[in-house]
Amino acid sequence: MTTTVAVVGATGKLGRLVSRLVDESDDLELVARIGSKDPLDDILTADLVVDVTAPAVSQGIVDFAVDHGLSVLVGTSGWSSDRISSLEKRVATRNAADGSEVGVIIIPNFSLGSVLATAFAAMAARFYDSIEIVESHGASKVDSPSGTAMRTAELIGNARAALGPVEAPHTDQRARGQQVSSVPIHSLRMQGVVAKQDVIFGGTGEVLTLSHETIEQTAYVAGIRLALAALPLTRGVVVGLDKLIDLGSADPSPEAPAPIETT
Questions:
Q1: Could you tell me if 135 and 145 are in contact, meaning their C-beta atoms sit under 8 angstroms apart?
Q2: What is the DSSP letter of 21?
Q3: How confident is the model over 55-112, as pLDDT tens digits?
Q4: Which of 3, 9, 44, 165 is most deeply packed, by most CB within 10 A?
Q5: Cα–Cα distance measured from residue 182 to residue 178, given in angstroms and rounded to the nearest whole number
Q6: 170 in catalytic set
Q7: Domain ranges of the chain
Q8: Rounded to whole angstroms, how far apart are CA atoms 154 and 172?
Q9: 28: pLDDT strictly greater than 90
């Protein structure tokens, strides 16, 4: 059985990549390539929606899809914890109202290496009190901090829940970055950069840096395919590519994702 897909933001770099991967799939059929000037109603011809647009419009697109009973893969940055909480309620209400099986997967970064680096950062967070993030993207990226940096900071905060906030002096000064879950994040927007993130841990007599850099968009291919395969099985809201792989297994077998359910 073939599943039909609509890609919103299909004219952008990531949108073109997603569209190509859907076209190449034996199980998926691309039925709508939607740009900024196309009517959003065009997504209603599809079984699933992929949103790779911009932070200012992403929430409206996802809300529209959910209200029409469509599951969505979100590859757009800017989804804060407050936005996600509101979406969780919306999806739960929709599913409870008429027995819908809507699912939303939000992926701050489709790179498997980025997911691992973030997981390692959350693991290290319990051992250091001084932690900051420096993230770099191309000059055309509109939002900052990046969704990946926000996700990393939130997971660090969760890992340190019993320990309290990180030590971040002088945060009243603008140059000290934006705090997310008490972690200062510094954003660079520069020509020549695709995506890079350094999570820096300061300890007594030592500094640990966890660094990940995306060189080209081919780094996103495995993560996009994994998320597309998982979406039809997803109910509720799932955040992060790490939820779709077994980080504790030597053989995560991403080709066969298990059903995903949230409460």
A1: yes
A2: H
A3: 999 999 999 999 999 999 999 988 888 999 999 999 999 999 988 899 999 999 999 9
A4: 9
A5: 9
A6: no
A7: 3-106+218-261, 112-214
A8: 20
A9: yes
Distance, in Å, from the CA atom of 7 to the CA atom of 35, rounded to the nearest integer, reads 9
Q: Which of 37, 141, 170, 212 is catalytic?
A: 141
Cα distance between residue 199 and residue 213, in whole Å:
12
Q: Which CATH superfamily is domain 3-106+218-261 in?
A: NAD(P)-binding Rossmann-like Domain (3.40.50.720)
What is the per-residue pLDDT for 169? 95
Q: Among the options 137, 186, 212, 243, which is catalytic? A: 137
Q: Which helix (H) or strand (E) holds 62?
A: helix 55-67
Class of residue 57 by CB neighbours under 10 A (exposed 0-12, middle 13-18, buried 19+):
middle
Q: Does domain 112-214 correspond to CATH entry 3.30.360.10?
A: yes
Has 37 been annotated as catalytic?
no
- For residue 55, whether the previous peptide bond is cis, meaning omega lies within 30 degrees of 0, is no
Kindly report, residue by residue over 167-186, the tens digit of the pLDDT. 999 999 999 999 999 999 99
Give pTM, 2 decimals. Answer: 0.84
